[in-house]
Fold each of these.
Amino acid sequence: MYENIKYEVKESIAYVTVNRPQALNALNMDVLGELYDVFSTIEKDAEVKAVILTGEGRAFVAGADIAQMYELSPIEGREMMTLGHKVMNLIESIEKPVIAAVNGFALGGGCELSMACDIRIASEKAKFGQPEVGLGIIPGFGGTQRLARLVGKGMAKYLIMSAETIPASEAYRIGLVEKVVAPEELLPEAEKLAKTIASKAPVAIGSAKTAINNGYDMDMKSASRFEIETFTAAFSTDDKREGMGAFLEKRAPEFTGK
C-alpha cells in the first residue's frame, strides 16, 4: 500500500513504521505524503484505539532528506515545510494517542516527528538533536515551537543553537522523553502502554488529549472553562454510563467509543 511506510492494525493498536532504512528513514516529500495519508486513515478508523510510531533499522528518523532539500528553491522549500507542518499538526491533533517508540537516531525532522507524538519512549541507543543550523537553516517542522514547550526556552535555544546531539538519558533528564528502556524492551513497553490506554474509554482519551493540547497555551481561566465544557460533554456519552456503571457493579467496563 505504501512505499516508505509499514502499516498494520493489531488488537486495536495501529503500528506505523517509517521504512527507508537505506536512508536512515529520512523524511522526503514522498514519506511526508504517506505519513499524512496513513494518519488521516487512522483518524477515521474506529477500530484504532492507540498508535505506535517507530522507524525501521537503526534510526527512528535521522532527519529530513538533505539530498532532496539541497535542490529546492525557496518556494519549493516552503511547500515542503508546509507539508511537514500538516503532518505534525495532524499527529498532534487526532483524538487517538500516538506513542513514539524512538529506536535510534531522532535528529532534525525526526526529533520534530517524535515531539508531535503524545508520549515518547526511547531506546537507550536513541539520539536526539536539532542540527539544522549547521546546515544553514533552522528547524522547519515545528521544532522551534514544540521543543521550547517541552523543555523550556533556554534549553531549546541551547539545543538548536549548538546543534548538539544528546543521548536518550539526557533527553529524559530534560523532559524530551517520558521513558528510556533497553533496546529489546522498546516495542514491548510501547505495546504495553498502548494496550493500557486502549482499554480506557476512547472518547474520554480523545477529550483529555484535546483539553491538554488546547488548554496549554490559554490563560488559566480560559483553560479551566475549556476543561469544564469538555468534561460536561463526556456526560452525554455511553462510555460515561458504562464506565461508572461498571465501577459500581465491580466489573470490567466494555467501552464502545460512543
Amino acid sequence: MRAKRPYIVLSFHTTLEAMEWEKHCLASCIPGRLIPLPREISAGCGLAWRMPPEEWELWQMKLKDCRFEAITTVEQ
C-alpha cells in the first residue's frame, strides 16, 4: 500500500478559474496538477490544483494575486 502524504489543494469557484490557473501554472513552470476535488472539500466547482506543501511555500508569494477559492491540506 502506498503511503499517504500531505498536499496543498486549491479549490476554485468555477471551472474556468481552475483552467486559467492551470494555464498560468504551466506557463510559469509551477509544479502541480489539476485534479478532481477531493471528498474532504465540499466547496468549489469540482476541480482543484494539487501541489506539494514545500512547493506552495516557494510559490505562494508569486501567486497571491491569482484567483482561487480556498487552500486546504489533504493527505492522498
Amino acid sequence: MKALTKTDFHFKGQNSVYHGKVRDVYDINDDLIVMVATDRISAFDVILPKGIPFKGQVLNQIAAKFLDQTTDICPNWKLATPDPMVTVGLKCEGFRVEMIIRGILTGSAWREYKNGCRELCGVRLPDGMRENQRFPEPIVTPTTKADEGHDLNISKEEIIKQGIMSAEDYAIVEDYTRKLFARGQEIAAKHGLILVDTKYEFGKRDGKIYLIDEIHTPDSSRYFYADGYEERFAKGEPQRQLSKEFVRQWLIEHNFMNEPGQVMPEITDEYAESISERYIELYEHITGEKFGKNTEDGDIAARIEKNVANYLATR
C-alpha cells in the first residue's frame, strides 16, 4: 500500500509552503490555504519514519465532516475538499495557542496528576481522582504553539497577560471551544463513543474569529468506546480507545519517548498497516459510514495536483 509522506507542489498563485508534522500548507495569493493531509504520523513531537496508508484521507474527511456539522456554532475556514486528502479554505492569522479541552482525566494530564500536579493551566484539580475519571465539567487547558519541540501549558491569565489574545478574543474562543466539544460529544455518543479530549485552533480574518485546521480527528482527539466504560473504570482497567494514544503506548513499550539517547524502534510494514486499520476503524465509528479507500490512482501526488489545480481554476 502506498503512502504520501512528502509534497512539493507548485500551484498557480502559490506564495509559500509550510511543511508541518502531518500537513503541508500552501499559501495561495495570501488569501487561500491549500492544506494537504499527508500520511505522515507524529508522536512525542517527532515524525515517525514510515507513512501510514490512508491516514491523510481519514484525517481530512473526518475534519471536513465536523467542520460542516459545526457551522452553526462558529464560522470556520473550510471552502472545499477538492481531493480526499485536501481541504482548501480561507487564510486566517492563527492565534499561537491550541485550545485543549478535557472531559476525562487521562493521557498526559493523568501522568502529571499521578506525579502530584493539582493545577493544570491555572485550573485547580480535585484530590482523589483516578485515571479515566470524568471531570465534574470539562476543563480547558491551553498550550502555546512551539516552533520546535514540545508545546507548553499556559493559563488563560498568561495568554492575556502576554498579549497572545485579548481578553475579549479569549472569551469568544473559550465559548466556541466548549460548544464545539459538547457537539462533538453528542455526535460521538450517537455512534457508541465518548469524546474524551480534543484540541481546537482559531484564527482571525478581517476582525472575525474562525475555527481553523482540523477538528475531532484521531490525531487531535481521544475517543473511548462507551460500551464497558463504567465497568472498566470501576475495576481500574484500561479503556478501549480509538486515538493516536495506542501509537504513543507502543513507542513507550519500545523505550522511546523522544528523550536523549533513545532510538526510534523499527516501524514494519505490518505495523504500519495495523495503524492504518485503526484509523479506518475510527473513521467508520465516528461517522457511521463505510470508509472508501481511494486506490484508483496509483500516483497520489499527481492526483492531488490535478484536483487542486482544477479547483483553483474555478476561483
Amino acid sequence: MADGGCYCGSVRFKITGEPVSQSICHCRDCQKSSGAASVAWIMLDEGEFAVTKGILKTIAGQGGAERLFCANCGTGIAYKNANILPGMVDIQTATLDTPDDYIPEMNIQLAEQIGWEKDAHMMPGFDRFPPQE
C-alpha cells in the first residue's frame, strides 16, 4: 500500500495490493505526454487504485489509451488502455510518496527510445548542479 499525488497537491491517491509489473517506458506517447525521455510505471489491478482527493482529468492517448492527470498542475498520474491492458492501470512511479519502494524490473518500448538516452548513464553526474566557474 502506498500514497501519492500531483505536484501542486490538488490530487492525492492511494494504491493497494502488489504491482503486476514495474517498468520504464520509452514510447513516443509517454515522451510527448510527460516531456521526459522515459517514464517509470507500476501496473496494478484497476480496483487497487483510488483517488482520495481531487479529480483527475482524462485525455485520449494513442490506440485507445487514456491518460489521467491533475487538471490544475498537469502532473501525469495514470494510464489505462482497455484494448491492450483490460482491468489494469499504470501509475507513474515518481508520483508516489515513496518511489524508491517500487524498483523498475524492465525497460519497455525500446524501439522508440531517444538515441542519446542509451548512453546517458555515461555522462558526468552531480548531486545538484555542476560547479560554477
